């Protein structure tokens, strides 16, 4: 049967939740593909305005939910058995409130853009109850990805990520040779800038604040292994800031890396550590993820060439 248009006021316990995830929870039995479709078509409104799937809602917001079919059985995606085992083996930290995954590169965290499922759907199949992402990693980025296992834990993690004492450390191989001193980039970023027919993130004085610290670790011929710490979590932040420095991330054709070191088949960007101060939620969350074998092999090849 069809339900009529609903005006849904966001309660306090859903403050900060993504719009797509809120709709999935409210429209039980409706396929995710349909949820994304009604958002895309502008049938969902937040406070009377068109909204995007990744937009976060606030307590008190009024969400217009259009009539959709809710009596069709919800199809659960079928995941390859080897993928499920791979994700289960990638758990780097877990307690009753949080789960940290050492995310493999090449997996999107959410459905959309032609994908019927995302990494979060696999994790929800592996763990019962509430599972929500506390932050995101790009599809081609590997490493520490934090999931919350209850609403209070989610809000606590999101607050912790905004805390200046929180740490997210990445390892990136940058094109070119950087000197030993750290580089600080404080450059606002704006999303969805059209360039060459492609939507991109760009440095823009009218964008949202974004701050990154680049510390060179080891130099090779034409490349520099760098530790990156970010104080903000903007989309593509490290990639755009690295390109802004004139040293794009290896394998990042989208933002200016015009060559790759031998053996590199992906973006050389890995979240190696997270540390979140969780006041009132128990001990601080600390988790790490070693550099994946395929990236370690690239560094070994570069080191071998340097020794010749």
Features:
308 residues, alpha+beta, 10-stranded mixed β-sheet, 4-stranded antiparallel β-sheet, 16 strands, globular
What overall form do the CA principal axes indicate?
globular
SS-based class:
alpha+beta
User: Hey, roughly how much beta strand do the residues contain?
Assistant: 25-35%
Query: Which stretches of 5+ consecutive residues score pLDDT under 50?
Result: none
* Sheet with most strands: 10 strands, mixed
- The quaternary structure here is single chain
Global Rg: 21 Å
* Elements, N to C (H/E): EHHEEEHEEHEEHEEEEEEHEEH
Mean pLDDT: 88
* SS summary, helix count: 7
Helix share bin: 10-25%
Tell me the span between the first and last alpha carbons: 72 Å
Strand tally: 16
Describe this structure in words.
With 308 residues, the chain is α+β, with helices and mostly antiparallel strands. 23% of the residues lie in helices and 28% in strands. The chain has seven helices and 16 strands. Strands 5, 6, 7, 8, 9, 10, 13, 14, 15 and 16 form a ten-stranded mixed beta sheet that branches. The protein has a four-stranded antiparallel beta sheet with strand order 1-4-2-3, with no helix packed on it. The longest helix is centred in the last third of the chain and has 15 residues, at 293-307.
How are the SSEs ordered, and which strands pair?
Blueprint: E1 6-9, H1 19-26, H2 32-40, E2 45-46, E3 49-50, E4 62-65, H3 81-89, E5 91-94, E6 98-103, H4 119-126, E7 132-133, E8 142-148, H5 151-162, E9 167-175, E10 183-186, E11 189-195, E12 198-203, E13 211-220, E14 223-230, H6 237-245, E15 269-276, E16 285-288, H7 293-307
Parallel strand pairs: 8-15
Antiparallel strand pairs: 1-4, 2-3, 2-4, 5-6, 6-8, 7-8, 9-14, 9-15, 10-13, 11-12, 13-14, 15-16
